[in-house]
Design brief:
Elements lengths: L1 H4 L2 H29 L2 E2 L13 E2 L2 H15 L6 H23 L3 H17 L20 H24 L5 H19 L3 H21 L8 H18 L7 H4 L1 H6 L1 H16 L12 H7 L4 H22 L4 H22 L7
Antiparallel strand pairs: 1-2
Helix pairs in contact: 2-3, 2-8, 3-4, 3-8, 3-9, 4-5, 4-9, 5-6, 6-9, 6-12, 7-8, 7-9, 7-14, 13-14
Length: 352
């Protein structure tokens, strides 16, 4: 298997197979959603802008395509992959439940935390504080508990970040595909070939879903689709272990690769807290909507977010093998620039 994944032909085969699988599963999922009544009706909530009934088939199509494509690629029975599916099935199930019945936010959070705990029990969790290289290493059992807590926060955070950023047709799958492409490159360089193949599968599925989810959307991802996609990418970030890179600098790579969804979630949370509004309610106050308020067209607003995601991913790869001081200085600069953009987009003069 290793020799196969080392070839570019294998990776492109995995992308093509998962693309075809996603197209087929989406086509079937749309018809099943219509038959079962999984439809997002126009005007069913104040923030919804679509004008025609749209099937909530994205989650079903994504999860089915992920399983089938991973099986075709020969990685489904590997520990990291089946462990991801086992934990991810919890998020998917709660997402389907929400798509059909609309469950309270705290119930969805329970599902996400449960999935993160399953991952930890399977030995898949962040190991930053346990690393002797990390500058905050305590060399005590507390290191493990902090890593477990970070894992739960990371998994629930990224899962919700993709749910938040799914504010425009094609945006979440576009950002997900871009992130998966960078994970494919960095895991190949790290010789983590299982993750490389898994990333290739996600790329193909995101492209296939984009065909149906791009404006005007023929299907919506729903919570089951956006949260499951975010969960899978969050796991990739945890399991990724770069070769020859110091833990004090390599931790910035997944954060920057997933930087746009993280920024969008931070913007929404800060904005709603500043205005004493509930954090977990759907509204037109995401990054995409803020760009529209500045006169940016819908297509260009999505393009701007995609270009920023691409730029951050390239920057993450560039700084990966730099000395920790340089890497962290670049990361601090990115964070400060993000804070400036957050304050700019959340200006009370322009946004009530």
């Amino acid at each position: 298997m290793t020799s196969d994944i080392l070839s570019s032909a294998f990776l492109f085969e995995a992308i093509l197979i998962s693309l075809a699988t996603a197209l087929i599963s989406s086509w079937i999922g749309i018809r099943l959603a219509v038959r079962w009544g999984w439809i997002d009706e126009p005007g069913s909530a104040p923030h919804k802008q679509h004008t025609s009934p749209t099937p909530l088939a994205g989650g079903l199509a994504l999860f089915a395509a992920m399983i089938l494509s991973s099986w075709f690629a020969g990685i489904l029975d590997l520990p990291e992959v089946w462990g991801t599916f086992l934990a991810g099935s919890v998020v998917f199930a709660f997402g389907i439940w929400d798509d059909i019945k609309t469950i309270p936010p705290f119930v969805k959070l329970i599902g996400q935390v449960t999935a993160a705990v399953v991952l930890i029990q399977l030995g898949i969790y962040i190991r930053i504080f346990e690393s002797p290289e990390f500058f905050l290493h305590l060399d005590s059992p507390i290191d493990v508990y902090i890593d477990w807590l970070l894992t739960i926060l990371w998994m629930t955070g990224i899962t919700n970040a993709f749910n938040f950023v799914d504010s425009m047709d094609g945006l979440a799958v576009g950002l997900g595909g871009t992130a998966a492409a960078f994970f494919m490159l960095v895991t190949l360089d790290a010789r983590q070939f299982t993750l490389t193949a898994f990333s290739a599968v996600i790329i193909g599925i995101c492209v296939g879903l984009y065909f149906f989810n791009s404006p005007p959307a023929k299907l919506f991802l729903g919570d089951s689709g956006s949260q499951t996609l975010g969960f899978f990418l969050a796991v990739l970030a945890i399991v990724y272990r770069p070769l020859g890179a110091n833990q004090s600098s390599s931790y910035v790579v997944p954060i920057m690769i997933l930087g746009v969804p993280i920024f969008d979630m931070a913007l929404v949370i800060v904005s709603r807290l500043r205005r004493n509004k509930p954090v977990y309610t759907a509204a037109r106050d995401h990054s995409y909507h803020r760009l529209l308020s500045y006169g940016v067209g819908p297509t260009r607003a999505v393009l701007i977010m995609q270009v920023i995601s691409l730029t951050l991913g390239c920057l993450a790869v560039v700084v990966l093998n730099q000395p920790p001081l340089i890497t962290n200085l670049v990361f601090i600069f990115v964070v400060l620039l993000s804070l400036f953009c957050l304050l700019l987009l959340d200006s009370k003069q322009r946004w009530s």
